[in-house]
């Protein structure tokens, strides 16, 4: 899974222009990450039953046109059966229903299935017609886009990377995403590496 993900990110990195430094940060963090089998207690809870059809539909629609995406999705499907799920709390002004209409499966990171101190990787799932709160954080971030959906970054605006697309966010850039009339599915990673 790591090798497939690295190839997907590296392919995008070659044509990313101004995003090259942030891309490199994420690729290096993933390449150098030490992964250990996670031990309980894990973070998060089980997936709510009401979101199971959303996850199943999103995985069924995810792009498998490329060997690396087939490897990635096959690994995710295996890991999801044991994954724990977390949610982002809604802030003032957010859609009241937001919290119960999305989840993130923790794949790598502290308290995740695979323990890792330098990288957090999760799978975001959102129900149709939902907007993720605008937010920012110090770590650089990547998304491997696995569905239709719109992404926002403060210096770019809204755009649709398309299934199979890759998004990079520089440290502390305001960003968001929103689903279309279908579920949104994306693998994300936050680099905590220090030099
Ligand atoms: Fe983010």
Automatic annotation (TrEMBL):
Could you name the domain of life of the organism this protein comes from? Bacteria
Q: Which UniProt keywords apply?
A: Lyase
* Alphabetical list of InterPro entries matching this protein: DMSP_lyase, RmlC-like_jellyroll, RmlC_Cupin_sf
- What's this protein's name? Dimethylsulfonioproprionate lyase family protein
Q: Which organism is it from?
A: Pseudomonas monachiensis
Molecular function in Gene Ontology? lyase activity
Q: Does the keyword Iron apply?
A: no
